[in-house]
């Protein structure tokens, strides 16, 4: 009663915490650093995208279904967000740096959306990034070469650059757009 009276007297309303459809990982002790090279040869860190919501996904170009599905969903998410989409950046980190050259990443991601950035590095840099984000990946031999097995979640960073949400591959574009919109509204209120 005292708390409610105080709010009434001050004319303030309680700040509602966002309700995410993905897993709220605010304050997680992982996913804090990333430093890789984009498909244009520019070194990128998470700080480069302050002011935007970042969707971070680990995958590979020759992925037969999971990665194209994730990228197609990201396109739908941007469409659902309308004008707010300009405040969102998708980062696609390859788990197959041996085959996913910058030129191949450029061509592949451009087929989905011109704003998507592909990140790569040495095998050691990719392994370090995967460890930082608790991402599983492994080379799996096939008859004529290999494929990659990998986890398929998407990480959302708020405009302040903090890891906030992990979305599962099975979730819908509506779920993704909902959580991104929540992060954008929260950032607007903090201004």
TrEMBL record:
Residues 11-185 form the Thioredoxin domain. InterPro entries: SCO1/SenC (IPR003782), Thioredoxin-like_sf (IPR036249), Thioredoxin_domain (IPR013766). The gene is ypmQ_2. Disulfide bonds join 63-67. PROSITE patterns: THIOREDOXIN_2. PANTHER family: ELECTRON TRANSPORT PROTIN SCO1/SENC FAMILY MEMBER, LINALOOL DEHYDRATASE_ISOMERASE DOMAIN-CONTAINING PROTEIN. Pfam families: SCO1-SenC. Cu cation binds at residues 63, 67, 150. Keywords: Copper, Disulfide bond, Metal-binding. CDD domains: SCO. The keyword Transport does not apply. It comes from the Bacteria. This is SCO1 protein. Coiled coil: none annotated. One of its GO terms (molecular function) is metal ion binding. Belongs to the SCO1/2 family.
